[in-house]
Task: structure prediction
Amino acid sequence: MYTFAIVNQKGGVGKTTTAVQLVAGLSERGYRVLACDMDAQANLTGTLLGEESLPEDAPTMYEVLTGEAQPGESVLEVRRGHLLPASRANKNLSIIDAAIGNHPDKLYRLREALSKVADRFDFAVVDTPPARDTLAYNALAAATGVVIPTIAGEYSLDGIADLADSIDKTRRYANPGLSILGVLITQHRANTKLAQGMAEGAAAMAADLGTRVFPRPIREAVAIGESQACYTDIFDYAPRSEVAGDYRAMVDEILEEVADGR
Result:
């Protein structure tokens, strides 16, 4: 099973949106996909569940990371593949350090959990919180490859710079084979000076990380917000839209990277 971590340590850059579309795009192509929600905001969980509610007795990512539940019994079947959902209010991922913070294996809990279901799936897609914390390091330690969404803005690029240090530490101490598949520019306005300047900045940072910027950025589109309001992915909501084409190109690029062994 190949595991993607969708990571940037700044919020609002399109991590969850990218995770949703990657899960949907891979599922469309017939792959067995497991979506893993590591963000306490649980937006990936909400989108993939659609109009359904998380069953009251369903174990979540919190129970998996604390060892209170096995990953196999925590995976839910959803319209687009399968889901390991984020936590509920009384056992929230935001307090995970209080439960596992002193354990020597605290950064390897997700990797261990995914190893137990790896034979059931071709891909896992991990959505991460906008922070440099136990959850983010769990995602990096478990990942085969990283996708870094960013937008046209200095703060977002700062998030890439912060992430570089986290990836370096993860490679040294936890996951030496971790690959960076690329930087994905989202919410793109092609004709603005800001977007053009930030694209150059993103390319420079990607080069420093030993990776590249995906050649086709994801354009800014009302349809993305509308699809989120309807708790669905862009391929379901507006399959012929230009932004759906952008995300399909992203999935194709990622599959080519994986096939090349990067």
Remarks:
- The first strand starts at residue 2 and ends at 6.
- The chain is about 45% helix and 15% strand.
- Residues 154-173 form the longest helix (20 residues).
